[in-house]
Amino acid sequence: MGTEAKKQIIDVGDGAAIPRKSDRGLFTAWRIAFFGAIGTIGYLVWSKPDPYLNIIKFVPDGIAVTFQVTLGAILLAIVIGLVTGLGRISKNRFFNGVASLYVEVIRGIPLLVQIFYIYYALGTIVKVPAILSAIIAMAVCYGAYMGEVVRAGIESIAKGQREAALSLGMNGRQTMIHVILPQAVKVILPPVGNEFIALLKDSSLVSIIAVADLLRRGREYASESFTYFETYTVIALIYLIITLFFSKIIGVMEERVSVNK
User: Are the C-beta atoms of residues 79 and 142 closer than 8 Å to each other?
Assistant: First the structure.
């Protein structure tokens, strides 16, 4: 019962469901959605090149920016999450208190407000480029969630592992680095994957501060051509394809990790 409860704790985020072969219904739905989205875009481009082909040609640089923001934010969020997670389980009251306060405050403020605050409010003190502001804001926000993922992953490791390492002469730091964290990585991989996909979708919020991501490029094309329905249909399908693609990659990684346990 205790182990199951901990697994539920670390299953956070609003990312796409991870398709697994063991879940035939979800796996079939993934294939229908993924190939259906690709087929739909292909059909639209073939049947009506103007505007659909023009939209496809207009947005690739926006896709590149979306990936740039997402990858930069997730890497920084993992680092922040690792430090926060260790702080949450620390016996040092100051370190634990700071980490806990960070998690509570950041998780209580909407991501869009954080983006505005870093870009506009702090921008009155220190001018930061829009794309860097976006990466920092998303990393700070998701770092709080990553911290809880790391905390729960570490706590899911049996106490006997720590006691055995200490009995072999390892100190607390060596035990954490060589025994606890390597096992915790296998536990936290699925929720980290979910957070990555959720962050990828939330990256669309950065278009509000003039970062030329996928959504921003779509808005620019729609405002110039007045093809709002066609443009946002393509943008939605592209986001769907990207998130489903990465959900599949994460599912494969998870299966390989499970085999190696």
Answer: no
